[in-house]
Every structure is written in structure tokens, then in C-alpha cells.
Amino acid sequence: MAIVEFEGYHGTNEANVGNILTNHFNISEGPDEWLGDGTYFFVEGISDPVQRAIQWAVVTAWDKLGKRNRYSRYSVIKAIITVEEEYLLDLTTLEGRQVMNYLQEQYVKKLAQMSKELRGSKKATEGAIINDVRDEGIFRLDVVKADFPFKFAAERILGTAFRQPNVTICAVFEPNNNINADSMCVVESGEVANETF
Questions:
Q1: Entry pTM
Q2: Could you give all domains of the chain from N- to C-terminal order, each with its CATH number?
Q3: In angstroms, rounded to a whole number, what is the distance separating the alpha carbons of residues 82 and 177?
Q4: What is the DSSP letter of 115?
Q5: Residue 197 has pLDDT above 80, yes or no
Q6: Which of 50, 102, 128, 164 is the most exposed place for a label (fewest CB within 10 A)?
């Protein structure tokens, strides 16, 4: 079985670092998660993953309703992600995109068979599809990798609507299984207010 290994960079509130290094990463859950319920990392691909993790930590510090930052310092944690190749869905490849296209077609058929009320409660996103694949045991997925268009501070402030992907991310569904805790370390820290576009 071939093992795929790559570095992932996770941007966060500096206050979370101790807990993450001691207790491992939390999983982000919900139908709005880009690639399903998992821990998210910026990885090598379209752009510099460390810089993108910094930008993500900065943009997520902002409280839109309160019009202020929720935290003043960010950190970027590096982790080595390992996964058996057959349990990695790589949407940066043609084969991976074809798999996702097939899954989307099947999801549309599934939605079409549901009542309007039930269909209205389901989100038709890549994340929802990946969660269904995993929850229903259609096939095993441990890590999904993809290119996405993210809006960081500049894009949000300037109101851009670019659709071209600008980051490569991955979701790790069982961080305790696919991330060696000994590999986790802080590679960047700084003041949120000092980061500009």
C-alpha cells in the first residue's frame, strides 16, 4: 500500500496552540465546511501554504457583527499528514475531479427522489457530499485535497468575486490517525493587526 505524506499548515488563534499541541486538532463540522467535517490545512499547490494559513488566521479573527478582532495574535501550526493513497481523494487531479463529478451527479439524483421539505433541509455542497459518502460507508475517505477560491482580507474588503482557485487545502477527517502529534510545531506567530494586504 503506497503512503502519501505532505505538510499541512493550520492558521489559528495563538491562544489555541497549547490545547492543539496537547490534545490534537478539533474537527470543524457542518454542511458549510468546504470538504466535509474535518481539520483543515493549507498545503503545497497553487500558493504558499504558510502565507495562506497566516491570512486565514487573520481573516477569521475578524468578528463581522462586533466590528473588531476576536483575538490579537495568530499562529500557524505545521503538521505532517500521512494517508494511504487509496483513502486520499485528490481533487487537484483529473481522476479526483471525475470522481467528485460522479458523486455530484448521484447526489442530484438522490435529492430529486426526496420530498421538497426534506430536500430543502439538505445543502448541495462538496462538503455535504463528502460527509454523505463517509457517513453512508460508500467508500472510505481519510483525507480530501482540493483547490478552492478563498476570500481573504483583501478580497473581502474589496468585494471581489473571483472564481479561480487561489489555495490548495486538505481536510483530515481523523487527525489522530493521519497526523503524527510529534510532527506538530508552530512555524509562524504574529500580531493580527500587523498583517495587511
A1: 0.92
A2: 3-89+139-194 (3.90.228)
A3: 9
A4: -
A5: no
A6: 164
